Amino acid sequence: MEEIRKLQITGGSTYIISLPKKWVRSMGLQAGKAVRMTILENGSLIIRPYEGIEAREKELRAEIHVGKGDSFEKIARELITRYIVGYNVITVYFERGMSSQKDKLKSFVRDKLIGVELLEESATHLQLQCLVKYDELPLIKAVERMGAITQFMIEDAIRALLELDRDLAEEVIKRDDEVDRFYLFTVRQLRYVMMEMTLLTKIGLGSPRDCLGYRIIIKSIERIADHAERIAEMAKNINKKLERDVMREIKEFSEFAVDVFKRSIDALLDLNSDKAHRLLERIDKIYEKEDFITKELIEKEDKLTAMQLKLVLESLRRIAEYSSDIAEITLNMSIRH
């Protein structure tokens, strides 16, 4: 509903405007009650009850009812959905005889959800609470940590591949859970901010339009981590030492992909359009390089190994492509109207 009201002046220097009676009553306000006003970067003015957001945050509760016919994947999706939407207290009710599913869900929460603690537990329910406030881990800081973890995942996955280190490969695969935790937490932040725009500055953003950009960026980082995990999986399956020339080419190719990713995160954190431009000008070189190494694989490695390494090259190329997506969004966000 939209209303148009005229500004009035009182006392010769103070501008006033009347508030809609329907809104005042719905908020439980009356004469003498305080309201909070927030000015956004785009010039919008948000008015809300003084105690509004803190009280509403405490009331954000949800329930999930689980039956024996429900798969664990469905239970996990239901929990993630409510976590992302912004509920702070989530109670999961189980039918009797589902203790194994309940224990599995507790492990899932520890591995995948940041700041979620178990408040209550009985034979038929779990009550979970998200204790991390939005300003305790701002979005920008979370993205920076996602980027650092992902960069080391790529580097270690390639090292595991070249050195046939299966233990290191397994460690990289486990680290993907940490990136997923940050991914879900940042999505939660962005979804909640879209409902409560006054939290923009608390999570480190300056404009509502940045929410869409960061939503794409964090998904790109999460996909890059998935490709690092994929390389680690390949490293576990290769059983022979690679040819020296092939190892050198793959190492150089991976260093290029890692450098592009690192530069994309640097450009984002600085919101530097020059850095983003320089990165985008380098991306085209990766396709020619991939074709060259593929031909070398066919000539020097057996068919199975060549096929496995081709998948590694594809993942490294996709890492560079997702990095270019981050750089393009950085360019868009660096332009202020």
Per DSSP E runs of 2 or more residues, the count of β-strands stands at 8
**SSE class:** alpha+beta
Cα-based radius of gyration, to the nearest Å: 25 Å
Mean pLDDT over the residues = 87
CATH architecture type of the largest domain:
Up-down Bundle
Order of helices and strands: EEHEEHEHEHEEHHHHHHH
CATH uppermost class of the largest domain = Mainly Alpha
Low-pLDDT runs of 5+ residues are: none
How many angstroms does the end-to-end distance come to? 27 Å
Query: Strand order across the biggest sheet?
Result: 5-6-8-7
What number of structural domains do the residues give? 3
What's the helical proportion of residues? 55-70%
CATH homologous superfamily grouping of the largest domain: Phosphate transport system protein phou homolog 2, domain 2
Shape: flat
CATH topology of the largest domain: Methane Monooxygenase Hydroxylase, Chain G, domain 1
Count of DSSP H/I helices = 11
Largest sheet features: 4 strands, mixed
Beta content comes to 5-15%
Structural write-up:
Helix 5 (139-163) packs antiparallel against helix 6 and helix 9 packs antiparallel against helix 11. With 337 residues, this protein is α+β, with helices and mostly antiparallel strands. The strands form three sheets. The protein has a four-stranded mixed sheet, with helices on one face. It has a two-stranded antiparallel sheet with strand order 1-2. The protein is flat, with a radius of gyration of 25 Å. The protein has helices at 21-26, 52-59, 72-85, 99-112, 139-163, 166-195, 210-237, 244-270, 273-280, 285-300, 303-334, and strands at 8-10, 14-16, 35-39, 45-49, 61-66, 89-94, 116-121, 125-130. Strand 3 and strand 4 (45-49) form a beta hairpin. The protein folds into three domains: 8-51, Pemi-like Protein 1, Chain: D (Ribbon); 57-130, Translation Initiation Factor IF3; 139-334, Phosphate transport system protein phou homolog 2, domain 2 (Methane Monooxygenase Hydroxylase, Chain G, domain 1).
